[in-house]
Design goal:
Length: about 325
């Protein structure tokens, strides 16, 4: 009996020692490198504090990383302003009032001329002639008042356009739109030659400069500019907020154009990932100023050169890897 107890105790002791020795081996198997590094990803920082993402060629291939050089671009100097698409209904009403006043003036003027002829023949009284003359003068003043209201509200340039064939019809059908762009108070410039207008869709439309706005915007308190977009290919609508890049005289500005798919947004700014070394396995996030959108992308003058290799496919994935490496998830 005692022998059986001894054998059982020995077996239990051997079992505990055997499995206790296996535990460290299991622990060692779990202590592998971080998942990102094991997958060919490594996140560090350079001497300037910039985040550097190193990816193995295999990982880059699996992620579909593609790079390209930004194209050189030259644009005319521009000044940025903000504004809106103007509602054509008040303009149409003023032009209708002016047309009615002109029609009344034509009728009263003809009546005055007729009575004047009859009065000379003794077939009309002086009193009737005086009444007709007063009516013609009254209608002439009404025409001038309607012209003044139109010019004071919309500016002389728009007032002169009223007689253009189909002007109001093109506005009411939204084939043509009028845009007002305002600059902040204290910012002044010479009359622009035109502008690029961006609406909510992000598409750029070329606008023709018509003239200065006749009244100051109560919020901006700066100089305002009236422009016409024809045709309205971007389908801008009355009341829509827009951004205007007024083209001003000056020497052309050199820079590069960055494809939109290369830009990621974080920390309240725009960034691109630049291939950092000749080996082609390190990427550095670089800030760019997104102040000049174009049809081809973003025009920038600093931070990126034509010799840089930008990530145009996979930039958002690189940002995710960076955030994971920094504990951002």
């Amino acid at each position: 009996m005692v022998g059986l107890v001894v054998v059982a105790a020995g077996g239990l002791l051997w079992f505990k020692q055997h499995h206790a020795g296996a535990a460290p081996a299991a622990g060692t198997a779990e202590a592998k490198p971080a998942a990102g590094e094991a997958a060919g990803r490594h996140v560090t920082r350079d001497a300037k504090g910039n985040t550097v993402i190193a990816l193995s060629p295999e990982t880059q291939k699996n992620m579909g990383i593609q790079v390209t050089n930004p194209a050189r671009m030259q644009i005319t100097p521009e000044v940025k302003g903000y504004g809106r698409v103007l509602d054509p209904a008040p303009l149409a009403a003023l032009i209708t009032d002016l047309a009615s006043a002109q029609a009344a003036h034509v009728a009263s003027s003809n009546e005055f001329a007729r009575l004047k002829t009859l009065e000379g023949q003794g077939n009309a009284s002086a009193r009737a002639l005086q009444a007709a003359e007063a009516a013609a003068l009254r209608d002439a003043l009404a025409v001038q008042a309607a012209k003044d209201r139109l010019a004071l509200t919309w500016g002389r340039a728009v007032a002169d356009e009223k007689a253009a064939s189909g002007f109001i019809q093109s506005l009411t059908s939204l084939e043509t739109v009028l845009v007002r762009i305002d600059l902040p108070i204290g910012q002044d410039l010479k009359l622009p030659s035109g502008a690029r207008i961006l609406g909510s869709s992000g598409e750029a439309a070329e606008a023709e400069f018509l003239g200065l706005a006749p009244m100051v915007d109560p919020q901006m308190q700066g100089r305002g500019f009236l422009l016409r977009i024809k045709p309205n290919a971007s389908r801008l609508s009355p009341g829509e907020a827009v951004v205007g890049y007024l083209k001003v005289p000056g020497a052309p500005v050199d820079g590069v154009v960055i494809p939109r798919e290369a830009v990621v947004r974080t920390e309240g700014a725009g960034w691109v990932y630049v291939l950092d070394n000749a080996g082609g396995n390190s990427f550095v996030r670089t800030e760019v100023a997104l102040g000049h959108p174009t049809e081809a992308g973003w025009f920038v003058t600093q931070g990126v050169a034509t010799s840089d290799r930008l990530v145009v496919n996979g930039a958002q994935e690189l940002l995710s890897i960076e955030l994971k490496g920094a504990g951002g998830e």
